[in-house]
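From the methods appendix. Each design record in this collection lists the tokenized structure first, followed by the designed amino acid sequence. Records were kept in a plain field format so they could be parsed without special tools. The example shown here is representative of the layout used throughout.

RECORD:
FOLD TOKENS (365 positions):
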């Protein structure tokens, strides 16, 4: 029977493969969910701040009403924190939404977008979903080769995606290099600078990227509450840019793209700076623990600027399956062109230990 045709470029999309939920693994492998350790999606192992949970409980009383489609209170908090104007902000259903909105407002069939090899999987997806062509620029030591990315920009290029730090590699480009890159990009090309792990960077490593926005009207920043703030399930992120670019993205978003619980949670999360600072400190300790353990096992890894580590285990598909059978969920990254590697999110100390011990057994070391 005939079915509606559907767009060719949509048929060619390779759907995003998320980290396996604990419940799925428990069901498939007949494991007790409480014994499973999930280090697969770069979530904050501490969970959100208790103040966030209280804010969500209070906001739950109002869920019969539509959320504030303009995000008044959250934008207020962001404006104060970042010293930007309300009209420079875009709120998203996760920062994934921000990336999609940028592609919706700036890419059409026949255009191209530039991104790096081993960069976050949503860039090719958001590009292909618009019927645009992705230009993948070979990585340098697994990280972004910004000079090559500049050189790859063509007359039909409308968007460049840069992840700093990048997921899944954990690589990071120095702020001065990133700024020089932005400056070298033609002003009619939108640079989407994805800073999903911004809060995990040490203050000295952080770019003053919000200040760049004032100098470079073709720059758009993307940030999220999913990682260091621990709100992944609520789906909330935001973008910062010139008022012109923000206006473009706000035109194509859904009127109520960010739900009320997420808005309330994000306001409370922003206010609890001590919780984020503590999360960053624990993450640093977790990274040190993972590095030491991997080194002991003779497993090469990439030093990370995020809350995860890329580890070279050899036959990663086999090791991944063996870890799953032992109730440890990590992230295979063959889809990123890294078939010998696994990405391990930093967990609580005991979770990191469990991963290392199980990996040691599997590798026979
Ligand atoms: C996790 C992640 C995101 C998006 O996460 P959201 O939950 O949609 O905010 C964006 N970019 C990178 C590089 C990420 O790792």
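DESIGN:
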């Amino acid at each position: 029977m005939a079915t509606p045709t559907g767009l060719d470029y949509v048929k060619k999309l390779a759907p995003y493969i998320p980290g396996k939920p604990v419940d799925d693994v428990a069901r498939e492998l007949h494991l007790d969910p409480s014994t499973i350790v999930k280090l697969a999606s770069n979530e904050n192992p501490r969970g959100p701040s208790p103040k966030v949970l209280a804010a969500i409980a209070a906001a739950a009383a109002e869920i019969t009403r539509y959320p504030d489609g303009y995000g008044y209170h959250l934008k207020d908090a962001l404006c104060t924190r970042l010293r930007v104007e309300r009209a420079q902000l875009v709120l998203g259903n996760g920062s994934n939404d921000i990336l999609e909105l940028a592609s919706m407002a700036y890419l059409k069939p026949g255009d191209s977008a530039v991104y790096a090899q081993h960069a976050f999987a949503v860039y090719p997806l958001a590009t292909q979903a618009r019927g645009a062509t992705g230009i993948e620029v070979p990585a340098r030591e697994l990280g972004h080769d910004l000079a090559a990315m500049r050189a790859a920009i063509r007359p039909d290029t409308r968007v460049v995606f840069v992840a700093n730090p990048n997921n899944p590699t954990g690589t990071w480009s120095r702020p001065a290099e990133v700024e020089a890159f932005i400056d070298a990009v033609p002003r009619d090309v939108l640079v989407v600078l994805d800073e999903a792990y911004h809060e995990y960077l040490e203050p000295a490593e952080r770019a003053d990227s919000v200040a760049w926005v004032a100098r470079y009207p073709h720059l758009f920043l993307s940030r999220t509450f999913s990682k260091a703030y621990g709100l992944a399930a609520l789906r909330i992120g935001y973008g910062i840019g010139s008022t012109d670019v923000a206006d473009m993205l706000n035109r194509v978003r859904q009127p109520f793209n960010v739900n009320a619980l997420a808005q309330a949670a994000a306001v409370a999360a922003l206010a609890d700076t001590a919780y984020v600072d503590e999360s960053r400190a624990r993450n640093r300790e977790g990274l040190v623990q993972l590095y030491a353990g991997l080194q002991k096992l003779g497993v090469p890894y990439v030093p990370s600027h995020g809350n995860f580590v890329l580890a070279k285990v050899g036959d990663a598909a086999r090791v991944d399956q063996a870890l799953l059978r032992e109730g440890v969920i990590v992230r295979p990254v063959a889809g990123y062109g890294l078939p010998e590697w696994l990405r391990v999110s930093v967990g609580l100390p005991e979770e990191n230990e469990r991963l290392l011990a199980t990996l040691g057994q599997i590798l026979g070391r």
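APPENDIX NOTE: The first helix runs from residue 8 to 11.
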